[in-house]
């Protein structure tokens, strides 16, 4: 059996305050080495085993002629004040040899010494300034003070959730007639006008408020009104020492006027103030001719008209923000420049002749974005040969069918004598719209 077993309790300190307690149990003679179990009690309640440890120390005493080898053994456990908590704590130690059946030779030692831990007492002077849970019509400094030290010594601090607020136990709650004065909220943007050229469409919006106008730190949210609206969402919060602030990125894909509103909300009273800024995103338009959208100059951009057609061909630059201006349409010697987003060339019986067949008409326009990607859009005039009723009897159409194509030539003559010029063209029957085929035998225009 362990001889002369005993246990001790000591308090460990740091910076003048208790940080933990250590229980040590000792026997002067045991064989084989000893084992320990330490229990703790709070306020005289049931014992609970201490699980962290124990740590053992064994000293071997060599055998002599009359005394066999034996050990001096010690075990210890360390328990932090956080683990112990508030209350009066006592301890019980059991020590026994580490051998099968050793617990039959166990010694139990109840420690006479106890340790009492207590929280500090605190008081606050905040609630007396509140009305129905809010600070209305006044500013206030809420104080939180420790009226007793406690053991170990504690401190008093305001918390919002798990986060401390204020300094030295004080929180300042500010007030003015607008809860948060609108002039105290500042909102700026990296640019008030942006041209949607490629990927250059991001604007940074910064919202901030001086620390002199609100305490503790407020919350920020941003909403967007415009062609692409967005509901309230948080920004990226930061602080530059004198201000609480938050940043928000706006990257629309549609041009127009956008209004970004920043809402600053007091975290204690849940009251807020809004501040807005306007941002213009210029986006380039598209060119349409006769309802068809064209881009760049391409052989596939073809406008088919009948010779002698009387009417208008209009280039219209639609969409985008703002609208295009100073639009010009040019077809050969004919050209027109409009002040707005349209330009029209008028064809008459004399102006629309077969001489214009194959002419490339170009449409140009100017736009505030400066990145108008259709600076010059073109289409090719396809002028069909149309025979007037008076000349039909003296005009010969000849053609032959090859696969799905119709080849024909048109030669005009007046009273049996050829005049002007002759030409020929080939077109696939399947490629001619019904109104185009009909125009070959009538005076109707083809658009």
TrEMBL record:
Pfam families in alphabetical order: C2-set_2
Q: Which UniProt keywords apply?
A: Disulfide bond
| Region spans: Disordered | 218-241
Q: Which domain of life is it from?
A: Eukaryota
**Ranges of biased composition (kind: Polar residues):** 230-241
User: Which InterPro entries would you find in this protein's record?
Assistant: CD80_C2-set, Ig-like_dom, Ig-like_fold
Which intervals hold domain Ig-like? 120-223
Record protein name field: Ig-like domain-containing protein
UniProt source species: Elysia marginata
Query: Upper taxonomic classification of the species?
Result: Eukaryota, Metazoa, Spiralia, Lophotrochozoa, Mollusca
């Amino acid at each position: 059996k362990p001889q002369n077993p005993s246990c001790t309790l000591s308090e460990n300190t740091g910076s003048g305050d208790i940080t933990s307690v250590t229980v040590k149990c000792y026997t002067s003679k045991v064989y084989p080495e000893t084992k320990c179990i330490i229990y703790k009690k709070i306020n005289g309640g049931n014992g609970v085993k201490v699980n962290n440890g124990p740590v053992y120390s064994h000293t071997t005493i060599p055998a002599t002629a009359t005394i066999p080898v034996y050990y001096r053994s010690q075990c210890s456990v360390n328990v932090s004040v956080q683990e112990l908590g508030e209350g009066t704590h006592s301890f019980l130690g059991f020590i026994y040899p580490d051998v099968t059946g050793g617990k039959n030779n166990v010694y139990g030692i109840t420690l006479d010494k106890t340790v009492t831990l207590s929280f500090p007492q605190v008081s606050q002077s905040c609630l007396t300034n509140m009305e129905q849970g809010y600070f209305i019509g006044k500013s206030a400094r809420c104080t939180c003070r420790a009226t007793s030290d406690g053991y170990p010594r504690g401190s008093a601090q305001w918390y919002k959730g798990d986060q401390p607020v204020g300094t030295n136990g004080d929180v300042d709650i500010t007030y003015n007639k607008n809860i948060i004065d609108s002039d105290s909220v500042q909102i700026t943007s990296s640019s008030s006008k942006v041209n949607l050229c490629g990927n250059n469409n991001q604007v940074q919006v910064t919202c901030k408020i001086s620390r002199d106008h609100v305490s503790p730190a407020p919350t920020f949210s941003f909403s967007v009104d415009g062609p692409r609206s967005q509901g309230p969402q948080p920004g990226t919060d930061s602080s530059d020492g004198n201000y609480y602030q938050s940043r928000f990125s706006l990257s629309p894909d549609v041009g127009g006027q956008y209004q970004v509103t920043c809402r600053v909300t007091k975290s204690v009273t849940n009251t807020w103030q809004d501040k807005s800024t306007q941002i213009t995103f210029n986006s380039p338009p598209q060119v349409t001719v006769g309802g068809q959208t064209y881009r760049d100059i391409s052989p596939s951009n073809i406008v088919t008209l009948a010779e002698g057609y009387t009417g208008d061909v209009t280039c219209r630059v639609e969409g985008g923000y703002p609208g295009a201006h100073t639009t010009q349409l040019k077809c050969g010697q004919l050209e027109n420049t409009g002040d707005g987003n349209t330009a029209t060339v008028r064809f008459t019986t004399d102006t629309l002749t077969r001489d214009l067949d194959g002419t490339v008409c170009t449409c140009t326009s100017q736009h505030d974005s400066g990145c108008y990607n259709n600076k010059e859009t073109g289409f090719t005039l396809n002028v069909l040969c149309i025979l007037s009723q008076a000349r039909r009897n003296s005009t010969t159409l000849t053609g032959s069918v090859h696969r799905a194509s119709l080849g024909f030539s048109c030669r005009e003559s007046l009273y049996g004598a050829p005049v002007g010029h002759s030409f020929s063209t080939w077109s696939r029957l399947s490629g001619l719209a019904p109104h185009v085929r009909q125009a070959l035998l009538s005076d109707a225009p083809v658009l």
